[in-house]
Amino acid sequence: MPRTPEQYEAMRLATRTKIQTAAMRLFVRQGYGSTNVQHIADQAGISTGLLYRHYSTKEQLFEELVQFAMTGLEALIAKFQTSDEPVEELARFADEVYHDLSAGDDFGHLLLLMTQSFFSTETDDRKEALRQLNTNLLQATAALIHQGQRQGKLREGNAFEMAQYFFASIQGLAMMKVMLEGEFSMPSRSLLTIIFDKEGETL
User: Fold this and answer.
1) What is the rounded distance in angstroms from the CA atom of residue 19 to the CA atom of residue 64?
2) Are the C-beta atoms of residues 23 and 65 closer than 8 Å to each other?
């Protein structure tokens, strides 16, 4: 029985996901410059010909992955900016981070991919876009923290500094997971938000 258009589309998306996952792992673990199309195809378990049916160049694939990561951060910023439940919003995000870093590699790889893009790009526009995106994220997080402080639910202190510490911790954990691999042990969930906790209370 011939496959339906829906089945072909599902197969296409599954292959594309395999390519993206393989490329993320290789870009992060051995560097963009040291990764070629054959490496990605081998990691994905497909032929280079099939890979080229989805991406014409390694650069196109890298760009799509970085853009995907940036779009995800933009969505997070928008969520933080519109939330009227600062404590619950931070707790939900910390839960997601904990689960993603505990159970898989994709989230950490996306974070490190953006860092790699910032330091490897020769395009000033891309550097500025990444810098502005991170600034917007820190500002949105700081505003959320400040809102929680006004409600008396979060520890007092410089909200922007707390936001920087929070995301530096997440970035550092993602890096340690890549470096240590099987030796990595995810810290307890409560440590992710300890900077926000009031005495005797945890997020």
Assistant:
1) 12
2) yes
CATH code, 1-55: 1.10.10.60
Fold of 58-202: Tetracycline Repressor; domain 2 (1.10.357)
SS3 state at 106: helix
Residue 144 confidence (pLDDT) above 70: yes
pLDDT computed for residue 150 by the predictor: 95
Q: What is the pLDDT of residues 182-193, one digit of tens each?
A: 899 999 999 999
DSSP category for residue 199: T
CA dihedral (142, 163, 27, 33) positive or negative: positive
pLDDT of residue 110: 85
Taking only the tens place, the pLDDT of each residue in 103-133 is 887 788 888 888 888 887 767 788 899 999 9
Is-contact 90 145, C-beta < 8 A?
yes
Q: Which residue from 144, 145, 121, 141 is spatially nearest to 131, judged by alpha carbons? A: 121
Where are the domains positioned within the chain?
A: 1-55, 58-202
**Dist. CA 117–CA 130, nearest whole Å:** 9
Q: Is the pLDDT of residue 40 over 80?
A: yes
